[in-house]
Amino acid sequence: MVKDCLTYLDDSYEIRPRVKNLREKFFSYKPSICSERAKLVTMSYKETEGQPYIIRRAKALEKVLDQMSIYIQDGELIVGNLASKPRSAPVFPEFSVNWIEEELKGNPVHFTERPGDPFEVDPAVEKELMEDVFPYWKGKTHEDRVHFLLPKETWEAGQEVKAFDVSWLMNSGDGHTIPDYKKVIQKGLTGIIKEAEERLASLDLTDPEDLKKRTFLEAVIIVNRAAIRFAQRYAEQAQRLADEEKDPKRKEELIKISNVCKRVPAYPATSFHEALQSALFINLVIQLENNGHSISFGRVDQYMYPYYKKDIDEGNITNEDALELLNCMWIKLNELSKLRDWHNTKFFIGNPLFQNLTIGGQTLSGKDAVNELSYLCLASTKKLRMTQPSLTVRYFNGTSRVFLMECAKVIRMGTGMPALFNDEAIIPALINIGYSYEDACDYGITGCVEPSPQGKIGGRFGASFPNHTKVLELTLNDGKDPRTGLQLCKGNGNLTDFKTFDDFVEAFKKQLNFYLKHHI
C-alpha cells in the first residue's frame, strides 16, 4: 500500500546499517584513473586490423567484458563496476588521446592538481597509457576523424575563435539514451540473440543493404553473448566469496547474488532484485562501450513495478527490503566515474553522469501512474542525499497531491531533485513533432531535460554551446577576433562605425548567421 511507503519518507526513518556503511565507504574512495579498459581495447584493435569497423568495436567490447577486473564489495546486494576500483574512471583511447597525454604532462593542469574533480594517477597507470596505449591511437581516434572531416574554416570557428564549443563531442561519447530495459528484463539477452540470429539467417546477401545488416547483426550477437558472460563472471565471484564466507547471513546473500547473476540479463527476470540487477548490467555494458553519459533509466516505477508487486504479494520481500535494494542501486550509480578534459570538467564539476531516472506521470488511459515504487524511489533519493541518479518526477492535473507534497519536501532539502516535468505540456509537444500517443505518453527524461520515448531513441541531442557573447565581440570589432586575430567573416565595421542601433543589429545577425552555419 502507498500509505506504508510514506513511512520511509518521514524524517524519523533511518536507512539500514548496510546502506549507511556502503554510503560511508563510497565517500572514502578517491577518484582515480584506470588504464585497464584502454589496454584491452588497444590490444583488440591491433588484433582486428582490416575487419569491418562495427565488428572491431564489438570484439573490443567483448575483450573488455571478458577480461576487465570485477569485484563485489562487502555488504553489496547490487553488483557491477566500470573500472578496477570504485570511483575509478576508465579511459577510452578510441575517442581521443591528445588531451589525456597533455594533461598527464601538466598542460593545462595535471589530473592530480586540478582545483576541482582531481583524479589520482598511479605511476604504473600513467606509464602504461603513455607507452603502450597512446602511440597506437595517434591519427586513428574519433577526434582525428572529426578534424579530418571538418573544413578548416569550421575548425577555426569552433576551436580557435570559440564561437561554439563541440570539443566534448570529439573526445567523448555523447550517450543520452534510454535503452529498452523493459525488453531485456522481459525477454533476456538470450531472446534478443535468438531474434538477431533469425534475422541474420533470413538475409539475402546479394542485396547490398542486407550485406550491411549482416555485420550489424553479427556484432549484436557478439556483444550480447559477451554481456551474458560478464554477468556470469559476477555469479562465479559471488559463489567464490560465499564458499569462503563465515557469516551465515552474508553467505546466504552472496549465494543469492550468484543466482541472480546466473539468471540476468541472460534470461527474463523473475524478481525485483533480478530486474534491478539486469537493468544495471545493461547500463554498465553501454557505458563501457561508448563512454557516453546520460545513459538514463526511464520510468523505473512503471516497468519494474510488476516484479516489485509480485515479490510483495508473495511475501518474498517487504517494502523496506525493496527500499534497501534501491539504496544499493543508487550508491552503485554514484560509484561510476567518467574522465573529462579540464576544459569540460569546469562546466561539469562534481563528475556527474546524469543518469536520469523518471517516476510518476500518467498511464495510457490518463490515470495517475504513481505507485508504491514511486514513493520508494523518492525516499531513496531523500535518505541518501547523493547526486546520482538524477531523479525526475512527471506530473499532471491528476497527480496525487500527497505525492507532490512529498516531492516538494525533498526539493526543499536543497538537493536539486526531483526535477518536475509537466505532462500536459510535454505529451502534446512530443505528439506535435511526430511521436505516437503511446510513445509520447510513456516518455522518460534523458540526461538533463530531454523528453524521450523509452528504448526508441539513440541519443544525439549533441549540444554544441553557441557562444553569443563571442559573436557580440566579433560584431563590435568588424568580425575580427581580438584574441586570435582571425577574421573569418568580414563585419560591417566597428562599434564607432554604426550610425543606428539597427545598424548594429544587422551586423550582429550577419556574424550570428555565419557562425551558426559552422556550428551546425
Question: What is the gist of this entry?
Answer:
With 520 residues, the chain is mainly alpha-helical. The chain has helices at residues 2-5, 17-28, 36-47, 53-67, 98-104, 123-137, 142-149, 152-160, 167-170, 181-201, 208-244, 248-263, 272-290, 300-303, 305-313, 319-335, 342-345, 372-384, 401-412, 423-432, 437-441, 468-475, 501-519; strands at residues 32-34, 88-90, 298-299, 356-360, 390-395, 419-422, 443-446, 450-453. Helix 18 runs parallel beside helix 19.
Would you give an account of this structure?
The protein has helices at 2-5, 17-28, 36-47, 53-67, 98-104, 123-137, 142-149, 152-160, 167-170, 181-201, 208-244, 248-263, 272-290, 300-303, 305-313, 319-335, 342-345, 372-384, 401-412, 423-432, 437-441, 468-475, 501-519; strands at 32-34, 88-90, 298-299, 356-360, 390-395, 419-422, 443-446, 450-453. By secondary structure, the protein is mostly helical. The strands form three sheets. It has a four-stranded parallel sheet with strand order 3-4-5-6. α10 (181-201) crosses α13 and α22 (468-475) packs across α23 (501-519). The chain is globular.
